[in-house]
Amino acid sequence: MGVPLIERLLAENVRIIYKPHPLTGKRSPEAAAADRAIRELLRADDEKDSEAARLRLQEIRARLDEMSGRHEGDDAQQLRDARVPDRDGAAEWQELRDEWHRIFWASRSTSASTRRTCSSVTSPRWSPTSWPASSRTS
Questions:
Q1: 72-116: per-residue pLDDT in tens?
Q2: 92 in a structural domain
Q3: Would residue 60 count as lying in a domain?
Q4: What pLDDT sits at residue 118?
Q5: For residues 8 and 1, what is the distance between their CA atoms, to the nearest angstrom?
Q6: What is the pTM of this model?
Q7: Is the separation of the CB atoms in 2 and 34 below 8 Å?
Q8: So what's the pLDDT on residue 37?
Q9: Which domain holds residue 103?
Q10: What is the enclosing helix (H) or strand (E) of 3?
Q11: Is residue 129 part of a domain?
């Protein structure tokens, strides 16, 4: 049941925090196989997300360099020749910079599966006063 559940959650882009018990799979080969499969699914999903982020960061960097005139030469020459975008390009410049920072820092998180948004299901909290009177001790 665990592997199909993880596959469905990944397909729905749900946040997954996988914390198996340290002894998972010690007594059951089936549990060990499921644990390995789940870890592999999460690792593959992380790699897919980080590759997409890397490609988008390169695209953004190229456009920012184009807008600022940074094309060739060493760092000193690029800084000397760089220019701030005109008013028409300022909004695009800021949007690209914001997107670059958002993608960069999200890709540096420990795991893609912990960067997703999550809708969680919680059970009601029980307190001794909410238990039936017959089960309470005086």
A1: 667 777 777 666 677 777 888 889 889 988 888 877 665 444 444
A2: yes
A3: yes
A4: 37
A5: 11
A6: 0.47
A7: yes
A8: 94
A9: 2-117
A10: helix 2-11
A11: no
